[in-house]
Design a protein that fits this description.
Helices cover 46% and strands 16% of the residues. The chain contains 9 helices and 8 strands. Bound molecules: 1,4-dihydronicotinamide adenine dinucleotide (NAI) and the ligand CCCCC/C=C\C=C\C(=O)C/C=C\C/C=C\CCCC(=O)O. It holds the Pfam family adh_short.
Length: 261
């Protein structure tokens, strides 16, 4: 399906899952703002994407999503360059149990801020045209590991926030579809960080537990996660979906009991 004329913003877009999603969006003819902390990687990535898709389709914006003012400017900069905004992927995430407050800031607070900024630019409540938001959580939202307590907490938080906001969007008639995406292990540089004492602090001693999980459940390729994202973006019947992607079941959806209250 063509996303011709659509404008997307992807955080953590210079590497790993974000990079794969940027590529898929460009393949579908969207314009993309690739947002990342890593300037060198972002510029290198943009040069490669310009060579493949032509100049003017992708812009790189250097931004630390944990800096609220910089994130606000990044959204505005995207709209200034491309005219409007239709798709926001809040993907940037880290695993740092030593600086665990930073992990909460990047993985949860910035996802909340990114969702509110996306609504400012896309919600019919604000006179905009509607759109789609995807917040990247993890299968760590449905299971836990002694190796990553705060990472696990942030990913649970992303699901709770996203489901509540999806209901607010439906009941408030925002015209914005809001989803959470939960991959199992994916072959990206983030997976290497879990063996590093600088990241894991005292929990590094549980790394064998983590590695056993990886060999038990397998490791996915970023392209499959991008495929799941594209399904959430293009299937307009989906609203408030919690998509899971695992080696055993591929792309599928989590189902919840109806609320009794
Ligand atoms: N790799 C995996 O096994 C899984 C990853 N995830 C989630 O997917 C998302 C993407 O992860 P990966 O691609 O694996 O990670 P990655 O480490 O390969 O790439 C993350 C990108 O985000 C950027 N980034 C980090 N902090 C940032 C900040 N404060 N501001 C702006 N950009 C920042 C990095 O520079 C990097 O380019 C994360 O939210 C992660 O928790 C979820 C499930 C599994
Ligand atoms: C709970 C472990 C957290 C590890 C954090 C480091 C890297 C991040 C990886 C993830 O976010 C993925 C986390 C956990 C789930 C992995 C596999 C579950 C597969 C379940 C299944 O196949 O049924």
């Amino acid at each position: 399906m063509s996303l011709n004329g659509k404008v997307a913003l992807v955080t953590g877009g210079a590497q790993g899952i974000g990079r794969a999603v940027v590529q898929s969006l460009l393949q579908s003819s969207a314009k993309v703002a690739m947002v990342d902390l890593n300037k060198d990687l972002g510029e290198e990535c943009k040069a490669q994407l310009d060579a493949e898709f032509g100049e003017g389709n992708c812009t790189f914006i250097e931004c630390d999503v944990a800096n609220g003012d910089a994130l606000r400017d990044t959204f505005q900069n995207t709209v200034d360059q491309f005219g409007h905004l239709d798709i926001v992927i809040n993907n940037a995430g880290i695993t740092n149990e030593k600086d665990w407050e930073k992990t909460i800031q990047v993985n949860l607070t910035s996802v909340i801020k990114g969702t509110y900024l996306a609504l400012e630019h896309m919600s019919k409540e604000n006179g905009k045209q509607g759109g789609t938001i995807i917040n990247v959580s993890s299968m760590a939202a449905f299971m836990h590991s002694p190796h990553q307590p705060v990472y696990t907490a942030t990913k649970h938080g992303v699901i709770g926030f996203t489901r509540a906001m999806a209901d607010a969007a439906i009941q408030g008639d925002y015209g914005v579809r809001i989803h959470a995406l939960c991959p199992a292990f994916v072959d990206t540089p983030l997976l290497q960080s879990v063996e590093d004492e600088d990241n894991m602090g005292k929990f590094v001693k549980f790394k064998d537990d983590f590695k056993r999980s990886m060999s038990k459940f397998g490791v996915l390729q970023p392209s499959l996660i991008a495929e799941g994202m594209m399904r959430l973006i293009t299937d307009t019947s989906l609203h408030g979906a919690v998509m899971k992607i695992t080696c055993s079941k591929g792309i599928h959806f989590h189902t919840y009991e109806p609320m009794s209250a």
